[in-house]
Amino acid sequence: MTTPKPKKPMPRVLTVKKAWHLTPHMIRVTFSGPELEGFPEGREGANCKLMIPEPGETRDAFVDRLTNGPAPSRRTYTVRAYRPEAQELDIDFVDHGPNGPASAWAINAQPGSFLGFAGPGPVKVKDFYADWYLVAADPSALPVAAAALEAMPRDAKGIAIFEIPSDDDRYPINAPEGVEIHWMIHKDAHTPSEAQVDFIRTMDWPDGTVQTCIAGEAGVVKALRKFLLTEKQLPKKDAYIAGYWKIGLVEDEHQIEKRAEA
Q1: Is 126 helix (H, G, I), strand (E, B) or coil?
Q2: What are the E-state strand segments in the chain?
Q3: Which end of the chain has fewer CB atoms at under 10 Å, N or C?
Q4: Could you read off the pLDDT of 219-260 as tens digits, one per residue?
Q5: Is 73 helix (H, G, I), strand (E, B) or coil?
Q6: Which of 198, 155, 148, 160 is nearest to 178 (CA)?
Q7: CB 11 within 8 A of CB 77
Q8: At what angle do helices 195-202 and 218-225 cross, to 10 degrees?
């Protein structure tokens, strides 16, 4: 007799405390309230799933949809920070304009706004043991990259490369002093960029153990994965390298493609 799979827990329905543009293309939303009771600590940088209400949808109607369907739009995001003493959770949204459901929701978020939350999963880089670290991200992956930098030992050394749409999209990150941060401007995220790949291919490669935290557009990530794992022969256990999105595809299409290639 087959044991039935346990039911997935109901998503939390989180309430916005405040939302603001951290930079011209990055919106930080802080959630707070009793719904965060029991939220696991130490998950900064972990994936979570957000369920987006329709414009004008009431909270009761949204909760009913979470239970009975039809399912709302789901998008994958990153836990940026959790402060258990205040029961506050931060999630950063790239401002893509009003076309994507999550971006449109974040642009219009204000105190009292709500959405569904499932997760978080495990953190992407759990242990820091390298002689040198390589971090690379575009705006979609800045939250996981920043969380990794903030969790590193304070004596860590390495390089972080962030590709952003404008100079005004730089923001402070509490990285170790020994990590050099390089900001690169790529104005149109929907055109291919080779800047990160070129930088990493031509930089001086350090001695010793190297760990990576690299994420972003799938084409860039594919090229970096080939270079680092095949040409530089970096052990897979030392490399977090993940495609978070792909030019020309919405998230659902990209997830289907990733599963097909796995």
Answers
A1: coil
A2: 12-23, 26-32, 47-52, 73-83, 88-94, 114-118, 132-137, 157-164, 178-185, 210-217, 239-245
A3: N
A4: 999 999 999 999 999 999 999 999 999 997 655 544 444 444
A5: strand
A6: 155
A7: no
A8: 20
Helical residues (DSSP H) of the chain, grouped into ranges:
59-68, 101-108, 142-151, 195-202, 218-225, 251-261
3-state secondary structure of 23: strand
Q: Which long-range contacts (CB under 8 A, 24 or more apart) does 87-90 make?
A: 87/32, 87/33, 87/34, 87/36, 87/37, 87/39, 88/17, 88/30, 88/31, 88/32, 88/36, 89/14, 89/30, 89/31, 89/32, 89/36, 89/39, 90/28, 90/29, 90/30, 90/31
Query: Whole-model pTM?
Result: 0.92
Length of the chain as a residue count: 262
For residues 78 and 142, what is the distance between their CA atoms, to the nearest angstrom? 9
Q: Is 173 exposed, middle or buried (0-12, 13-18, 19+ CB in 10 A)?
A: middle
What is the band of 210 on the pLDDT scale with cuts at 50, 70, 90? very high
Q: Quick one: residue 42, left, alpha or beta (phi over 0 = left, psi -120 to 50 = alpha)?
A: left
Phi/psi of residue 51, nearest 5 degrees: -110, 125
Q: How far apart are CA 116 and CA 53, in angstroms?
A: 8
